[in-house]
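I'd like us to work through together how a protein chain folds, taking it slowly. We need material for that, and I hope you will provide a protein of your own picking. Go ahead whenever you are ready, and we will take it from there:
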Amino acid sequence: MTTRREFLLLADTFKADKHDPVGMMMSIKLDGGRALWDGGITRGVPTVDVPWASVTNPKSNLPKDKIAPVATGLWSRYGNPIAAPEWFLDAMPRGFLMDGELYCGPGKFQQTMSAIRTDVPIDDRWREVKYHAFGAPTFDSVFQSGLIKNANMLTEIDHAACLEFVAYRTGLTKEMLVYQGPRTFEEEQDALDEVLHNGSDLVVRVPQFHCRSLAELTKFTKEVTDAGGEGAMLRDPDSVWFPKRRPFLLKVKPRPDSEATVIGFVAGRKGKTGQFLGKLGCLKVVWHGDPTAPCGLLKKGVEFEIGTGLTHQDRELDPVELFDQAYRNPGKELDAPISTQPLDGGGTHRGFRIGDRITFSYMGVSTSSIPREPAYLRLRDES
């Protein structure tokens, strides 16, 4: 059976109740045009001679009516050559494969598209375009065998044929190409740093940061969107580039935040690992809506539970009686404790108390005006 694949690595959507962002690499989600740079090895080669080029109409199974005469080394998400000016292509690093986006800046999507979608490049439109590299996968990883079949592309990728083509164009052997890879995402960043540190201003590396908490991700995403950006991206630093949609690459859509009041505590469930048994599972809160939310302010508050976003320290229960009650009654509401920690504090973390105002993020609201995918961010009086 033929393996199904995509031309490029694609992202899943981040969900706070499903994905843990801690330890992942975080970066700006660019609002541009995805582009693979093959190191320039196909520059000037007839498109029909490139083994991974999209030359078949997926609807008719016949050759496309319109095929770019020659490749440029830049490939769209659907395997089509991107016509760029010669001076732009000259600035790209020779023989070094990169995954990235052609991008003019925040809020300039249409401007970017007007430049990169023409059959003949128009210099004036390309003046603000830069190639923003976020990855440097190896040829061996990118050209894995498989069938690409979607509404925009129908191509059978043959790993051996692609590597033979690359070897011929680069002077390397197939064995050397296979020996190169794969690279982890962190290793890709090292490769980008090495190649681009003294390169052209037209080619820049997308900065990557280690995410330390859900709150940090939410703050970062808000800063990006406030500046006109689209959101954030997350990538597992140990993951290896793969031509398909994968959960180790996540796109983070903007998540509004709001405030709710703590009205109770729910004991942790045993789950598969038992890590929350005897601990705080969820905060029970009441929410009265928000002027900026789709539902606006609510005449009657809605109650729901928030567990996502709580740290292991947040979940600790004290005194011993509260721990015992939680241990014996997993998933049940605890009998009206005033606080999850002693009222005199006792340490740097005071726990949660009835009446606390907390800040949480969410992804829209249900028809019952209950926030979807709520995730705890912080106590209201925390910085």
